[in-house]
């Protein structure tokens, strides 16, 4: 158990809908990262938050947004969903500094039908 | 920009034989290198990392990796493979430069250990 909790584990929704994925980082970790894993694109970095502030953006679509709350949990919001958004979405957390490894949650499998 | 290449989509090895999963990287500054393993329907688990120092890094479950700066490689190795090692392995890099906290992953290598 990595200590990173993601909910829900599975999500099935229709095109055009909006969903929210939730992540609780390991106790004490201030950094939260979101990644998307798909068969054709591999693991893609989406966004990084540190202590409530956005620190870096990767290949995140404008239809997607995220935030980190004062209790350090994070939410990834996906809107106007398309079939191609079906993927495994991972949250990871890490401690301070660039040398610390990230610990991953078990992911949310999103299926858009 | 930083990138990671894992040239083999799949590696097959017999149980008890040594295994190697290859990784090469490209980064502008000094690299921080990581290996993760993913079992079916699970998240990624951290195996080991290279930050600085000894080029041979030891990690979890008997895995080790060798950093080679001149070849920009960070190959994962294990002296004797187990069937339970069968999984998807990801190499990842961070740039040690300021502000670069996220990991860039390779496409992954599927390791199959044959009994």
Treating each run of at least 4 consecutive H or I residues as one helix, how many helices of chain B? Answer: 0
What oligomeric state do these chains adopt? heterodimer
Low-confidence stretches of chain B: none
> What portion of residues of chain A belong to β-strands?
over 45%
Counting DSSP H or I runs of 4 or more residues, the number of helices of chain A is 0
SS-based structural class of chain A? mainly beta
Strand content of chain B: over 45%
Give the termini distance of chain B in whole angstroms. 41 Å
**Main sheet summary of chain B:** 6 strands, mixed
Q: How many extended strands of chain B? A: 12
Report the largest inter-chain contact. Answer: A-B, 25 and 24 residues
- pLDDT averaged over residues of chain B: 93
Helix content of chain B: under 10%
Q: Describe the main β-sheet of chain A briefly.
A: 7 strands, mixed
Shape of chain B: globular
The unreliable regions of chain A are none
Rg estimate of chain A, integer Å: 13 Å
The counted number of beta strands of chain A is 11
SS-based class of chain B: mainly beta
